[in-house]
Amino acid sequence: MFPRPDFFAGSLLNFAENLLFPNNVEEAAPVCFTVTEIDGETITTTWAELRESVRQCSNAMRACGVQPKDVIAGFVSNHVQAIVAMLGAATIGAVWTGISPDNGVSAVLDRLAQIEPRVLFADNGMTYNGKPWSSVDKTLQIVGELKTKGLETVVVVNNIKADLGLDGLKAQGVGAVDYESFLNRYCYELGLVYSGY
């Protein structure tokens, strides 16, 4: 056909809402299994838990001033916290991008510096070959560059038993908070409560 018709002009679709609320699922049913290299460590997340975490995450991002089309980045492994951050960004209409913490600083900056994220979710480390490896030093270097590109907040996921590096991040002039505090308290400390998706 020529000219091509404009289908559904002006309509909006929320990607996160459609993923979080499919038909015929039970709240207590598992939706996600996070499995690591640590023997016996499997985390099961239910639909109810995922929905609540995404609600809290999007609230906290809104409290930080995140708007539609802002960029939210993840320097994170494949775990439920990464899914929550991605869906939290999508509920607002923000753009999500992620890169694995096993990448080097220059590779991360090649990707993230050009898109200028406002919020960065970063693992404090990862487990590889049965050993924990801290990524705090890499995160500090990455944040040092990204803060000149508009980075305002870093949310650190406690992925291994190691330092989160919050003091070093705050010293660089960005807001820094651990993931659990970000979801549970951060938005309330900033005085904003938004209950919807």
TrEMBL record:
A Pfam cross-reference name: AMP-binding
Ligase is among the record's keywords: yes
Gene3D superfamilies the UniProt entry points to: N-terminal domain of ligase-like
Protein's name in the database: Acetoacetate--CoA ligase
Boundaries of every AMP-dependent synthetase/ligase domain copy: 39-153
Keyword annotations from UniProtKB, A to Z: Ligase
Gene Ontology MF terms: acetoacetate-CoA ligase activity
InterPro entries reported for this sequence: AMP-dep_synth/lig_dom (IPR000873), ANL_N_sf (IPR042099)
